[in-house]
Amino acid sequence: MKNEKELPVSRPMMMIEDAVDLVRSYPTVPLTVDCVIFGFEENKLKVLLIRSDLEVYHGKWSLLGDVVHATEELDDAAYRVLQERTGMNDVYLKQVQAFSAPNRHPGGRVVTLAYCSLLNIRHHELQITDNELHWHNVRSLKDMAFDHKDIIDACYKWLQKSIQEHPLGFNLLPEKFSLRELQNLYEAILNVELDRRNFRKKFFSMDFLIDTGELEEDVKHRPGKLYRFNFEKYEKSKRKWIGIDF
Amino acid sequence: MKNEKELPVSRPMMMIEDAVDLVRSYPTVPLTVDCVIFGFEENKLKVLLIRSDLEVYHGKWSLLGDVVHATEELDDAAYRVLQERTGMNDVYLKQVQAFSAPNRHPGGRVVTLAYCSLLNIRHHELQITDNELHWHNVRSLKDMAFDHKDIIDACYKWLQKSIQEHPLGFNLLPEKFSLRELQNLYEAILNVELDRRNFRKKFFSMDFLIDTGELEEDVKHRPGKLYRFNFEKYEKSKRKWIGIDF
DNA sequence: ACGAATCATGTAAATAATACACATTGCCCC
DNA sequence: GGGGCAATGTGTATTATTTACATGATTCGT
How far apart are CA A170 and CA A181, in angstroms? Predict the structure, then answer.
């Protein structure tokens, strides 16, 4: 022990033999997940909400959430919430941030993990409509229960950033879409106006759009071409998504 | 109630009167925070680790972490860990991601929130060295306890991305630094080689570096100028940090 | 005073971003 | 079926940004 040059794998003062015992001694807190589910319709970004079932938040809107089960992965809990409350599956989902303010829940300490989810409103018709489940304009939210407005704000910022770094927007569109729809999506989410020609140029130069050969229908003007996003090619290609800095 | 156009603020089937009761009924889990504390020394990115005090992880390295107290904010818990275990204060800290794999802790279900922290090794000399607390090269980590390698990987990726979007790197450097040091920092973190002239040009064009008028000392060649980062100007200026896409 | 090492600096070429206008297509309606 | 409407589809010139690259200047050490 005199040799101070070598750092021996020395036994610390108190080595803990029984990990189970240790964990049993830990304080515990209730954990929930809350899903910010975005959709896109009528050129507006929407978010899916229900009425809160808490008396203190009577009439206020709330995110879809639930308690995390005893040995459940957080991601699984979020997928479960989506499945149980909307009947939807196969939806983009991503953990965004934990919220832990001590008074964020009127019933006491509850820590929540915010998840952001993107889905195509048209493709997933709502099956269940308990508690007035439906879509709200993201830009005109009010009367939110808990800190759910903060959570939505955080997820919205996350979304604005992420659609410029990754091709997430396609999750909000039908499988086949026109370039105009795609541009409307970006304009709505980023709250900017874009030049149509440069927008097209940018997307075509990435070469991830497949021309389906089909045309829009039910429009009362010249129909645009319909495209699909080439997810396979995108996944394979190491070269990243070209940043979209509007 | 026949009028279906109006969505009345109707009482859902079961309105919950007692929120406290509700929360009491929730399952609870132990919550911890784990801090990935990065430093920079000898042109290498370092991370601060201790020996695990769990017998099953005998000899393995572990992040600095602790259980979250009953009504504690997660951020506060992470700052507390930093303070208690290193004596350091006033350090950049950011929540990165939750880890919740059911078997990530040998003692049973424990959910952890990973925090990423940046500090200047020179400025904060380690006071406490319990459990062989010291710095490790990020590139040569092995024998990690728990899922701490995964956590470090996630935080490292977060760091690589973030230093290109925000001026975080300066937290890892002394208050006064040479441009070479700054470049070494970026090169080490991003694992790339950069052109010196273009690097200087980029940083000077942002106009956030203040020439202190001082020069490097104790170098055995022509000393470089020392700069400070103009945090005030950066905070004020709405125009963002110019993306650094190396 | 000389060599070694690193600092400091500018320019030309290539690439990417922006601004901008007109012909084309399909629908609708008369 | 012809003309107006509304949106689609396309190219180029200009500007800004990024990249590649070489030389003289300064300080230290001997």
Answer: 10
